[in-house]
Design brief:
Helix content: 25-40%
Number of domains: 1
Oligomer: single chain
Largest sheet: 8 strands, mixed
CATH superfamily: Ribonucleoside hydrolase-like
Bound molecules: alpha-D-ribofuranose, calcium ion
CATH topology: Inosine-uridine Nucleoside N-ribohydrolase, Chain A
Length: about 325
């Protein structure tokens, strides 16, 4: 089967970095047409820089990187240096990028790419706030029905919030954008904290990354050594949750995940629960299902795939 054509929309972020590396290591499964940076974990200038650092770490400098929106649709940017560090990629010491940033705005790249391909052949993979994707849908409503699928990391239901008591970071940063995406009618697969908090980089798993002995393996281990602090301190987790790589792994091995096709709506008015993804898991509302909301993962299978693919770079 031909590899899926994807656009990765991202706010690197150590876990975004691993998701991008997994994609770039899997050309038989995914064809990365471009990487679009968005403001999120750190400001746009850094996410656009970090995306290029990761492409160079993977030795894939032919993948075009675009800068997108530098703030949410209707509110101030909230960042997460407390999780990812000042650079957004704290942990390893990686060189500044040499590859250029594309001139074109990320939103225009998304619009142009979907318009230029047959309907149902482009998958959007948002790993950060949904500002770029929502802006593209607002600016070019014609592309909505052309998108094959959106596979995103964001939201939470049983796991509740990681930035507020009720909201997950990606949705919280731009709830208006998330509301547009979830109401778009596009076929959506969601990787919420409910599943990503089961994809923990335990010490044996991180040792396996380091034991690859390659620049990529060592860098991923060092990113994890830094990134795990937040979750270990807050949740007492056994390791860092690899949120965003769940998106890429789903494209390669969807069988690693289980969930339910349910209605998911986003809170955009209550300050108390702003950005909450209200997943009708028990189907009590009668609202039409609009998302495949994942709840479980074969974690050993996930880490086996990830380690095997990272070894290729
Ligand atoms: O809440 C986790 C999400 O927020 C991940 O995508 C992480 O990279 C941050 O963007
Ligand atoms: Ca992210």
């Amino acid at each position: 089967m031909a590899p899926r054509k994807i656009i990765i929309d991202t706010d690197p972020g150590q876990d975004d970095a691993v998701a991008i590396l997994l994609a770039l290591a899997s050309p038989e499964d995914v064809d990365v047409l471009g990487i679009t940076a968005v403001a999120g974990n750190v400001p746009l200038e850094l996410t656009a820089k970090n995306a290029r650092i990761i492409c160079e770490l993977a030795g894939k400098t032919d993948v075009p990187v675009f800068a997108g929106c530098d703030r949410p649709l209707g509110r101030d940017l909230v960042t997460a240096e407390h999780v990812h560090g000042k650079t957004g990629l704290d942990g390893p010491s990686l060189p500044d990028p040499q590859m250029p940033l594309q001139e074109q705005h990320a939103v225009d790249f998304i619009i142009e790419t979907v318009r230029a391909h047959d309907t149902g052949t482009i998958t959007l993979c948002p790993l950060g706030p949904l500002t770029n994707v929502a802006t593209a849908f607002q600016r070019a409503p014609d592309i909505v029905e052309k998108v094959q699928q959106i596979v995103l990391m964001g939201g939470a239901y049983f796991e509740v919030g990681n930035i507020t008591p009720t909201a997950e970071f990606n949705i919280y940063v731009d709830p208006e954008a998330a509301d547009i995406v979830f109401k778009s009618g596009v076929d959506i697969v969601v990787m919420p904290l409910d599943v990503t908090h089961k994809a923990l980089v335990t010490k044996p798993r991180n040792d396996a990354f380091r034991a690859l002995g390659t620049p990529v393996g060592v860098a991923v281990a060092e990113m994890t050594d830094f990134f795990e602090r937040f979750d270990k301190e807050k949740y007492g987790s056994a390791g860092a949750p690899l949120h965003d790589p769940c998106v890429t792994a789903y494209l390669i091995r969807p069988d690693l995940f289980t969930g339910r096709h349910v209605n998911v709506e986003v809170e955009t008015s209550s300050d108390l629960t702003m950005g909450m993804t209200v997943a009708d898991w028990w189907r009590v509302t009668g609202r039409p299902a609009n998302a495949m909301f994942m709840g479980d993962i074969d974690a050993d299978g996930f880490f086996g795939l990830l380690t095997e693919r990272l070894a290729r770079l």
